[in-house]
Amino acid sequence: MLGTSTSKWMRFCVQQLLHSLWKKKPLIFAIILVSSFIVVAVQYNSVSRQNEKNSASNSGGVGKERSIVSENNNNKNNNNKLDLNSDDNVAKNHRLMLPRRNLSALDTQNNIGKVMADNHNNRFEIDGASDFDKNREELEKYNSNKFQQNANEAFNARENANPSDYNNPSHSKYLNNPRNEFEARDERAQQMVNDKYYVPSFRLVHFDLKGAPPKISYFKQIFPLLKEAGANGILLEYEDMFPYWGYLKPIAASNAYSKDDIKAILDLAKIYNFEVIPLIQTFGHLEFVLKLQEFRHLREVDSIPMALCPSKNESFTFVTNMIDQIMIMHSSTRYLHIGCDEVFHMGYCEKCRNQDRDMIYLNHVTRVAKYVAEKYNVKPIIWDDMLRNMATDRLKESSLGTLVEPMIWTYVRDIYRFIPYPTWMTYAEVFPNLWTASAFKGAFGETLMVPNVKMHLENNEAWLEAMKEQHRNFKSLRGIVLTGWQRYDHLATLCELLPASLPSLIVNLLTISHGRYNSSYVFKAFDRILRCTPSSRYDSTSHRMDVDFENDPNLWQRAANCHFPGFAVFQLTYDVSEAIKRFNEYSYSVTIHKAWMTDYNIRRNMSNPHRVDESLQEHSLVYYRLTALVKQAQDALKAVFDEYTVAEWIEQNIYPYILKMEAIMKNGIELKKAKTWERRPLKPLPDLQRFGVGTSTEN
Fold first, then answer.
1. Which entry of 162, 522, 576, 613 is 20 to 30 Å from 636 by CA?
2. 218: helix, strand or coil
């Protein structure tokens, strides 16, 4: 009896307790939540202390070393101050394959519209994008330390400088420069911290002359436009358009610029106070040289004329000869871009196959860079893509950081997906100075006639954000180059021509010169620079610009009433595009959709003549529209380019459709000649027998 009473009493107490707790459930939830935060904080503090101990024991600060998996350097460097635990984690989260120079965007949605991928250009593989946030936190710590270090260095340099020593040549940088180097750097860094937007110091336009080289007269027309849009330099990639002489004469194109032409370009650049940086290839992308029989023996892979074999003595002789001739014509340049991107073929020949591929690359680039620096006292620049997979220690051991300035390039919107935070940290440790490169054309399709301005604008906006975030990690983030590729390589067809890309160039130049994209600012200046008529000018009532990137990504409509140099070429691309669209509709209707002029009809010579006549009724309209474009193209192109470029562009973009239209007419005429036809069933096509079709199965 007593046990029963006790049991009832305990049950009653528990019920009352639960009832009381239920009434106070918000308080209980709050207590649990606070307790959880306290536990997490204690654990985080413990882990942080352990990381600090590990960092101290490994003789370096934050970001001392980054281990990135390289084909010939797996698991050789294990100190990782990003606390990514192991090389395996780095490999998992940052597997980077070699990119292409003309990298197209991925199949991703952006804030303007769908970006379609170029399958040839998907050469990256990156997992674990969520870990970028963790890397960003580490980078922010590193940023703070690096910026303070730069500020201290500037202060100490000023305090320790002895005025009596200023006559010493070693202190010339304090006096000869318009502004003290350290003061300028300190002031610039402070400005970048305080300002809301980032404006790159150098804003260079890249001219890719290996395809469709403009006449000198066209440079005279567009240089003032570039200056007004904010450009202050040019990057000249001559390839075979440079007038090489002597031993190198065979590599110059028959229509190469003359020495007087080169001098005229440089004189024009001087008028507009443009920094001029020549670019020559010294390792990869040497198709224009290695395609020739005279230089075939210098190839790394005999069947592929892309990369030089660095182990052959003549290779270095060849490279230095090119450098010497370029420098003779550009004796006042402060920088020389020596290329060195996309060297896909290394370590294949008998002399190279037993060497580490990273070391093959580093040894050759170092040797070339030393030659440039020691003989001409100019700073070499290289593309950065071949460095991205290399470990920090390996780059430091090569002394490349004191020899070259890398130019980081990518043409997508998501900069950090392709240049992740660990890569930036490695570059900050190795290289005091850095360049970046975006694109205004030649990045989103090998055969495009006109650039997609919205995609290029997104790329340039993304670079401004990245540079704003990263600039304090370097002594100098020199600036940005807007690349304008004319071919994806020397043996490819032409992509967007320079005149057709001028609207894209001006929009993107104005954006980077302003530090951000503001439609009112950009398109008011756009209308002024490109001489656009009032019908497409700034709407002062709505304070918005009449531009629709969704429906007019190429600016064909927005720039339809402009009058800039080469506008006829820009208009030509629209007219050709519309003609090709009409051809595709007609060709599909006649040869695929309808049943009387298909490939089957033509092979069997069997069709209804009446239906064939119906199919050919619109042929002349489509055909003569295409043939009329030939004359229009000649007139538009010859104002900017020589006869070879005029003929090449027409052959690539109009002539194929004329041939296809003529083939349709020829097939129609042949089909109509038949007056009688075979009785069905028709015998199987003999060629199908190789697939087992049409062979007899009867015994």
1. 522
2. helix
Given a cut of 90, whether residue 154 has pLDDT beyond it is no
What is the per-residue pLDDT across 42-70, written as a single tens digit (0 to 9) for each?
555 554 554 444 444 443 333 333 332 33
Distance in angstroms (rounded) separating the CA atoms of residues 93 and 88: 9
Q: Which of 491, 383, 413, 388 is nearest to 446 (CA)?
A: 491
What is the rounded CA–CA span in Å between residue 575 and residue 567? Answer: 12
Specify the 3-state DSSP secondary structure of 205: strand
Assess contact for 620 and 613: CB atoms under 8 A: no
Torsion sign over Cα 209, 212, 217, 219: negative
pLDDT of residue 78 exceeding 60, the answer is no
Catalytic positions, written as ranges? 342
Cβ contact 95:69 at 8 Å: yes
Report the distance separating Cα 254 and Cα 479, nearest Å.
35
Cis ω on the peptide bond leading into residue 681 (within 30° of 0)?
yes
> What are the CA-CA distances from residue 25 to residues 20, 21, 38, 299 (Å)?
9, 6, 20, 77
Would you say 262 and 327 are in contact if contact means Cβ atoms under 8 Å apart? no
* Torsion from C-alpha of 268, 273, 275, 279, nearest 10 degrees: -10
Residues 234, 207: contact at Cβ < 8 Å?
yes
Statement: residue 275 has pLDDT above 60 = yes
Tokens 């005025």 belong to residue: 163
Identify the pLDDT of residue 541.
46
Predicted pLDDT at 97: 36
In 3D space, the residue among 417, 379, 440 whose CA is nearest the CA of residue 203 turns out to be 440
Most confident range, picked from 34-43, 96-105, 144-153, 347-356:
347-356
> For 329-373, how does the pLDDT look when each residue is reduced to its tens digit (9 = 90+)?
999 999 999 999 999 999 999 999 999 999 999 999 999 999 999
Report the alpha-carbon distance of residue 262 to residue 369 in Å, rounded.
Answer: 24
Which segments within 476-554 are labelled E, that is strand? 476-484
Q: 199-517: which CATH architecture?
A: Alpha-Beta Barrel (3.20)
Query: Token digits for 558?
Result: 């927005």
**CA 418, 420, 425 angle in degrees (round to 5)?**
140
Q: What pairs with residue 382 in β-bridges?
A: 406
